[in-house]
Write a structure and sequence with these properties.
Number of domains: 1
Helix content: 40-55%
Number of helices: 10
Oligomer: single chain
Strand content: 15-25%
Distance between the termini: 29 Å
Order of helices and strands: EEEHEHEHHHHHEHEHH
CATH class: Alpha Beta
Length: about 230
């Protein structure tokens, strides 16, 4: 995949499609391929640039970017996001850290520890082959080192962008899965009230990962927002 050198940092990225640039930022413990089910549709309308985050970072990167450089962000999409980590979220992520260390493997921790938070029991029961294919996908990606996951998840635990919400000027789409617990709709009101030009979508029948559990609906509704706010 292409690489971009910035000072002493080498950033991997993937680029597909044509049109206005759309930057897709991976979530915790994921690389650029995590949006595989979205890029096929998005790239029909946008130049999709998906990046590999550095080993340390946090999954609310877009929030900080939109607040710090409002002139560079035309629209912002926050999927299963939150303004400030609370005690419950911190406890869950700390549990993932313990599991990753015990298993000695970030991919196996994702499958055994994070997957059950991402998908509903109904999906596990109705589509076990699909869950297995997602597990195979995780095992087939480049392995994140344990120390990198620790730094990245520490940043998630420490995440606090609450004071920055009012600086976000871009139209913002906020989405949650109805049955998500780890970043549940308990965070919705603060995001909606804090970001002036925001709208909220809650995906029915989904947990933390509507991007995999309701692919067609997620793509259709998020793409509609993106197209409304493109040139």
């Amino acid at each position: 995949m292409p690489k971009l050198r910035i000072r002493d940092i080498t950033v991997n990225y993937d680029q597909q499609g044509a049109g206005e640039p759309l930057v897709l930022i991976p979530y915790l413990a994921a690389d650029y391929a995590c949006y595989a089910f979205q890029v096929a549709e998005y790239s029909k309308h946008f130049t999709c640039v998906t990046v590999d985050l550095r080993g340390a970072g946090d999954t609310a990167t877009g929030m900080w970017l939109a607040a710090k450089y409002p002139e560079k962000v035309k629209s912002l999409s926050l999927h299963s996001g939150w303004a400030k980590s609370d005690a419950f979220l911190k406890t869950v992520v700390e549990g993932w850290q313990v599991m990753a260390s015990a298993l000695g493997s970030v991919p196996e921790m994702i499958i055994k520890g994070i997957f059950p938070w991402c998908f509903t029991p109904e999906l596990y029961g109705a589509r076990p082959d699909y869950i297995s294919s997602l597990a195979d996908f995780v095992r087939g990606r480049p392995v994140q080192p344990l120390d990198a996951f620790r730094r990245q998840s520490d940043a998630v635990i420490a995440h606090d962008a609450d004071a920055q919400l009012g600086r976000i000027q871009a139209p913002t789409l906020i989405t949650f899965g109805k049955y998500d617990m780890v970043t549940s709709t308990r965070f919705a009101d603060r995001l909606k009230q804090g970001i002036q030009r925001s709208e909220l979508i809650v995906f029915e029948g989904c947990s933390h990962a509507p991007i995999y559990e309701k692919v067609e609906e997620f793509n259709q509704r998020t793409l509609a927002f993106l197209k409304r706010h493109s040139a």
